Amino acid sequence: MTAIRSTCPYCGVGCGVLVEANAKGGFKVKGDPNHPANAGRLCSKGSALAETLDHPDRLLYPEIAGQRVDWSTATQTIAKRFQQIIQTHGADAVAFYVSGQLLTEDYYVANKLMKGFIGSANIDTNSRLCMSSAVAAHKRAFGEDLVSCSYEDLDEADLIVLVGSNTAWCHPVLYQRIMQAKQNNPTLKIITIDPRCTQTAESADLHLGLASGTDALLFNGLLVYLAANGYQDSTFIEYSTEGFEAALHTANLSSPTIQAVALQCQLTETEVRQFFQLFAHTEKVVTVFSQGINQSSSGVDKGNSIINCHLLTGRLGKSGRGAFSFTGQPNAMGGREVGGLANQLAAHMEIDNPIHRERVQRFWQSPTIATKAGLKAVDLFQAIEQGKVKAVWIMATNPVVSLPDTEQVKRALGQCELVIVSDCVRHTDTTAFADILLPALTWGERNGTVTNTERRISRQHPFLPAPAEAKPDWQIICEVAQALGFAQYFDYPSTAAIFREHAALSAFENQGERCFNLSAWQQLTQQDYDELLPTQWPVTLNAPHGTKRLFTDQTFFTSTGKAQFIAITPRPPRTKPCVTYPSVLNTGRVRDHWHTLTRTGITERLSAHSTEPYVDIHPEDAARYFLANGDLAEVYNELGKLILRIKVNPKQSRGSLFVPMHWNQQFSSAANLSTVIPAETDPISGQPESKHAVVAIRPYPAQWQGVLITREPIAIPSEYWSRYKIKGGWCYTLASSTLADFKTPWFTALKTEQGYMEYCDNTQHHYRLALWQEQRLALCLFISPTTQALPSRQWLTSLLTQETFTTPQRNQVLSGKPFTAQPDQGRIICSCFNVGENTIRQAIQQQGLTSVQAIGTCLKAGTNCGSCVSELNQLLQTERQQ
Ligand code: SF4
């Protein structure tokens, strides 16, 4: 097999990959050196792609009410139920909830069906949760949702400001690119602005740990400072912008002086002055903003407060300059192009513009067209609960985990008349609510395009056959459209045909007034499409090889052709810490996991870095709430409760907590973060405020703790459990606040007749069980009153890889003591070479290592994907301080 070029399915960086067959009949995946997004680099997630191809829980057949049916029955049933509901209640009684995981071609037909043929705009996407505030900010400033920058601007900048972006973990290949740029240009300065001192902040020249929600105050202050000190580009402001005076006047009201800014943002005046001066004195500035800005009830304003500063200085549309929104998902941008958001039409046209509506309807030759914006994600699920929306089709996403206020989402889906879920995985928190399940293809099987953060369209190529009866999403949607009576409009022979239509719509009656334009690709042949090189739109006859940078001619896509300053009155989050809920909860990603773990959670390599859901807390807060490192804690508010492992972290700011977003009921009993996130949204974008909730924390009163290794996943009834993948099986961590488990012990039911060894002390509450399957250990469970009494996790998890046990070893398993003395290597830091924290610390101390390169030479850690480099730097720093 010659290498197949494709694109990583995880984040918005959009790295190119090369897939090759390996000698064992499997595949290996490496970075594509010719892809401009990554030039051969991959992070830990991309490097492990080959390990996630064989999912143990694929959805393989359509199902209705849990029973397997054929495709025709499934699509006819959906069409019939949709028609009944639409006839009785109108088109707005049905909805699609789609995903930035879909390919552009899937997205295009879903949007066309809902907006042009069903006649409602009730199609929204999980991209609403990650970047819809950036979309709205772009539209207000530039007249269209436009990201002007390229990754090359990161190479060329002299100052990179990362706002609300833990780039090292969330966009790792771009972080490595920034670090490389710093090596090439030692004068490059990096500033991070984030309430959290993240792994990215550790390597910055300056970190502003501002108070949660105060970003717009800070950037308003910067605008005032730049104007007051003569840093404005007056010609650019006069000829290419509007609204400057009003924006400056308003900024002056909230942020008149450095002192006022420092006070409100809880920064020192020196920190604020340093940032303002660096920004002012550096011509080539790129300001990156990401989820820390977008996931806010004032995310649009925050985005515009950043863009305002670039407009004032004229720093956009030129090399090394611009406000650069990093998107989360692999195809969030593609969804924006086809109108995947409920308030967009298609090809960057607007629903509330009658000319656009008429144009799109004429192009589609559709019987109808949505006349008003549809329901945005949070509103949609509230409308479902209220019974206004009676049927929802969820595609490639897991809203029970990702939408705020989990219980509300569950109530909504639980009482919805018709819930359809298309997914590649059979069991997720959302598929549990489905009346109809449709098996979809996944990465490696799908064929189409995605667009990354820098507007670069790349191909995803299939290299695996469709399993069982699974189908591509575009085909499923088209079959339902055909069953609804729209056969001639959804009769695509291939994704190439859909892509040509998408390109043609972008060019349709577009004399340059819409920037999004793929006119040069309207006539692509199948071969052209298959050989499409990664290209940044617009792609027109004048720019057939794409467009690196926008706004180079200083004209914009507003009605006047001028960019708009937006007057920003900063708004704090609605909820404030109080006596009952004194802590602010911040949220984010861990390094090696993606979204709701359905893919990364099945590989031991990616699971080794963060094995359990946790909460970061400052040492003083931990002491105040009687919490110690490694304890379990309850994090709660009026919406619900989480049970999480405590990580005492001196870098966490006082009064705040951090919890990662990935865990859900497939992987832990009580760690779905959205359970405690209220459904507060930005009034313009509808994006939820996922970075700010007020909560309280208290010790979890564990009466016993346990650890279980097993070859197959099992249902655990204990109050707390979480699991992670290990070689040969799964490792579960268990706990309970009740000793009733010892009175009616559920764990004894795990015993089989095949052979087991058991130890039980009901008085001291110890229980141990080992099950044997011939020579191999099938399951092993330890329960004790404290975690300290449990055996070494490293030893225990290694037992599933041991094929045979001697009789003394079998007898010794229940003692919980390793057969031979093993140094504890600690938490895995380098997942490529399985190198633990203790091993690295020891090597630093004993061998006097002083650099990441030296650690790499000694232990190989950090020498493959580079995702652990920021943590290696942290370890070097902390060891140096000791
Ligand atoms: Fe994939 Fe990592 Fe590249 Fe993101 S940075 S696209 S997760 S390899």
What does this structure look like?
It contains 31 helices and 34 strands. It is an alpha/beta fold and about 900 residues long. The strands form eight sheets. A seven-stranded mixed β-sheet has the order 5-4-16-15-14-6-7, sandwiched between helices. A six-stranded mixed beta barrel has the order 21-25-22-24-23-26. Strand 31 (about 765-775) and strand 32 form a beta hairpin. It starts with a strand and ends with a helix. The model has no long low-confidence stretch (mean pLDDT about 95).
Summary tags:
single chain; 882 residues; alpha/beta; 7-stranded mixed sheet; 6-stranded mixed beta barrel; 31 helices; binds iron/sulfur cluster
Strand order of the largest sheet: 5-4-16-15-14-6-7
Q: Which outline best applies? A: globular
The description of the largest β-sheet is:
7 strands, mixed
Mean pLDDT across all amino acids: 95
* Percentage beta strand: 15-25%
Ranges where pLDDT stays below 50 over 5 or more residues in a row are none
Tally of DSSP helical segments: 31
Instruction: Indicate the percent of residues in helices.
Output: 25-40%
Oligomeric category: single chain
From the helix content, strand content and strand pairing, which structural class follows?
A: alpha/beta
Number of extended strands: 34
Radius of gyration: 27 Å
Q: Span between N and C termini?
A: 53 Å
What ligands are attached or bound here? iron/sulfur cluster
